[in-house]
Amino acid sequence: MASDYDTVDAALARAGADTDAAEGHGTLCGMLSVNNAISSEDWFRELLPDPEPGDLLAQEARRQLGEVFKETRMELHDTGLDFHLLLPGDDEGLERRVEALGHWCQGYLYGMAVCGVREGANLPEDTAELVRDFAEIAGTGFDVEIDETNETAYSEIVEYVRVGVLLINEELQPIKAPPRLQ
């Protein structure tokens, strides 16, 4: 993803959101996984208060977030599997990154719910299992010791979530291959 976590986090703050970049991006991904036809305005309604007329900072923040929306939609539906979670970089402390991953998963589940997926919904088996796993990750609060084992575990969990999102997206909205010329 071309968007930088801190830049998106700052844009959300300027626009008056009560969420961080990880949760906001998770919400977007959850919404898009269920309904690729949503608009950026649908996402904004879930995250942002209505801007005050003439608030140039909020307008610029919405423009930046609109770019995140376009990038994310493109990544989720790209057959190259180039989708990435919007999380703090490796230069941030492990505790902050783990917390952000929990927020991301929480946002993802919220986004799915906003688009009509309810708890206990009749989902494909793999999707239902991933949703349960994401709920567990979202609800996990724990102290993190910084060592190589925990760094590796964090990276593996991020990759599990990333691939899981792609699987959910494919199960709920299969990518349609371009038509072949006969």
TrEMBL record:
TM stretches of this protein: none
Q: GO cellular component annotations, sorted alphabetically? A: cytosol
Q: What is this protein called?
A: YecA family protein
Q: Which organism is it from?
A: Thioalkalivibrio sulfidiphilus (strain HL-EbGR7)
InterPro entries for the chain: YgfB-like (IPR011978), YgfB-like_sf (IPR036255)
**Which family does the entry's similarity section mention?**
Belongs to the UPF0149 family.
PANTHER family xref list: UPF0149 PROTEIN YGFB
- Family annotation (Pfam families): UPF0149
